[in-house]
Write a structure and sequence with these properties.
The chain is elongated, with a radius of gyration of 37 Å. Helix 10 crosses helix 11 and helix 14 packs across helix 19. By secondary structure, it is mostly helical. The strands form 2 sheets. The chain has a 3-stranded antiparallel β-sheet. It has a two-stranded antiparallel sheet with strand order 1-2. The chain has 27 helices and 5 strands.
């Protein structure tokens, strides 16, 4: 099935090619008859198109925008070929003369490339079975006559190519040299200007100049055209193209054809793709047949999404642009698995297609397909990241007691989040938020001086906190200063509430300005009972144990 300009026409093509076999020839003839009366400037309702092709009016459904005449003409030609491909229609089915591409070119005294250009200009082609049993692109005599009546000047101008004499060719070469010497124009611009002056086709002028340069390199119009651009020039061409410089301007600057400039650009695009790092988490499901429709389809949770969204009220102490993060709904577990599977599968497809690239025979369609798939993967990744940005903010707020500000911690945490997205394996069944939390907290531990060493030996019990503080004097001052040690302890305690942190610091003498206090001393200074102080201490120690155990286990691997 060919690529259609209108989605409605693509659906209609699927229906007609799957219809009754005896009706398909009628669809082809009706499509050509309708094509001959369409006008590019007009718009045509979809219902009218269906009626002209099938004789039936479609049932009312969701409204379809009218089709422009220009896009409809292109789609009707594709529709004719698609229907012809769906059946073996012999040339004997038509009571008129039928031509293939080569016979029509000989009859009209033009090249086969000219026939292909006429097809793009409106000459209707069918794919028919010839008497020798081969299926080829053919043209009915009536189709050729209709095209000739509307494009007679184009046919006559193309047919004059074989009549071009040596004197006329010499005159074209002389004029081309003069234009290039005066303006430095590229081959395409020179061909257009000479075509307007001589009445010849642009392709004819271009072919004449190219052939002259190939046969007479010493007297070529573009003397350095055959020499390839060096690596530095190719890099400049590619960077200029990325910054929006038109290809025509680049061709004029380097005195090249537009085609050669496009080849340089495609080569650089291919080399960029070949050196690009594409990491993904492989899953055997990626190699199953028909997996595209399953993985790249709509997420199961989105099909039956309820009106409730999993939003959370943002903390009041956050800046406005951070509060907006809480407006984004969290991902449901099934949505999360679907997006991670889709993200890794898209990169897997791009990597497989990239391995098929041949730098000696680069096709723009291949490059566009790989770049499109990578762009889709990047869009899925951004959606996952946006839904988890509030997790970074939440963890960063608990590490504010260290030397870094909130914005520095968030920036550092975002880097960890990006890495976690790349490494997460959805097939293991874990939640991404758990995996990402460990990765972010592990990175925060490393960002504080000597934090990794302290956390390896830190267990949240009252006795071991005292041991840690008591052993501070045994540290080598050249390796760990008291300031670094206290900053590390403050970073860990920052995960507690202000009251809990105050009780723990004063209870165990973690501040350089105070000694350890008893429960009675704390109860008198805080104005609460001794039992309440003990409860606050116990709750604080439980929080530290729960929050630090995943990080400690991860760091001790």
């Amino acid at each position: 099935m060919r690529a259609y300009k209108n989605e409605a026409m693509a659906d209609l093509a699927k229906q007609l090619t799957a219809g009754l076999l005896r009706l398909r020839k009628g669809y082809v003839d009706a499509a050509e008859a309708f094509l001959q009366i369409t006008e590019p400037e007009r718009e045509y309702p979809y219902e009218l198109v269906v009626y002209r092709l099938t004789g039936y009016r479609p049932r009312r459904r969701e409204p379809i925008r009218p089709l422009t005449g220009k896009s409809l003409q292109a789609d009707l030609q594709k529709l004719i070929l698609d229907i012809c491909d769906s059946l073996d229609l012999p040339t004997e089915a038509y009571a008129e003369e039928v031509h293939d591409t080569h016979s029509l070119a000989r009859r009209l005294r033009v090249s086969t490339k000219t026939i292909q250009r006429w097809r793009r200009g409106g000459l209707v082609a069918r794919r028919l079975v010839l008497p020798d049993g081969k299926k080829r692109v053919c043209f009915l005599e009536s189709s050729v006559r209709h095209f000739a009546d509307r494009r007679r000047w184009a046919i006559l101008r193309s047919a004059r190519f074989s009549q071009m004499g040596q004197a006329e060719r010499a005159d074209i070469i002389r004029r081309a040299k003069r234009i290039v010497g005066r303006t430095g124009s590229c081959l395409h611009e020179v061909s257009k200007r000479l075509a307007a002056r001589t009445g010849r086709a642009v392709e004819t002028i271009r072919y004449t100049i190219r052939k002259h340069d190939q046969e007479n390199p010493a007297d070529a119009v573009y003397a350095g055209h055959s020499e390839p651009l060096d690596a530095q020039a190719r890099e400049v061409v590619y960077r200029c193209f990325l910054h929006g410089v038109p290809v025509t301007s680049l061709a004029r600057r380097y005195q090249r054809t537009r085609g050669s400039i496009y080849r340089v650009i495609n080569e650089m695009r291919a080399r960029q793709l070949m050196t690009r790092k594409i990491d993904y988490v492989y899953n055997p499901q990626f190699d199953l047949p028909g997996v595209d429709q399953i993985i790249l389809g709509e997420a199961p949770a989105e099909k039956a999404a309820s009106t409730r969204t999993r939003t959370q009220r943002p903390p009041r102490d956050l800046p406005p642009y951070l509060r907006r993060l809480y407006e984004l709904p969290l991902l449901r577990p099934e949505q999360e698995r679907h997006l991670f599977r889709q993200y890794n599968y898209l990169k897997y497809r791009a990597d497989r297609l990239r391995k098929k690239l041949d730098l000696n025979h680069i096709r723009s369609a291949q490059l566009r397909q790989i770049e499109r798939i990578l762009a889709q993967a990047e869009a899925v990744k951004n959606r996952i990241i946006r839904a988890n940005l509030r997790l970074v903010v939440s963890i960063a707020k608990k590490h504010l007691a260290g030397p870094q500000s909130l914005f520095e911690l968030i920036s550092d945490g975002n880097v960890s989040l990006l890495r976690a997205v790349e490494k997460f394996d959805y097939a293991r069944g874990f939640k991404f938020s758990t995996y990402a939390s460990w990765a972010i907290m592990k990175n925060f531990a490393r960002s504080v001086p000597k934090e990794r060493y302290l956390l390896d030996h830190f267990v949240t019990s009252s006795e071991e906190i005292l041991d840690l503080v008591a052993s501070a004097g045994r540290y080598d001052p050249r390796a760990t200063s008291m300031l670094e040690l206290r900053e590390s302890i403050q970073t860990v305690l920052a995960q507690l509430s202000p009251r809990e942190r105050s009780v723990v610091v004063r209870r165990f003498g973690l501040s350089k300005l105070s000694e350890p206090q008893t429960l009675n001393q704390l109860s008198r200074s805080l104005g609460i009972s001794k039992e309440r102080v003990r409860q606050i201490e116990h709750r604080a120690m439980q929080k530290l144990r729960v929050m630090l155990e995943p990080v400690r286990a991860d760091l001790m691997r």
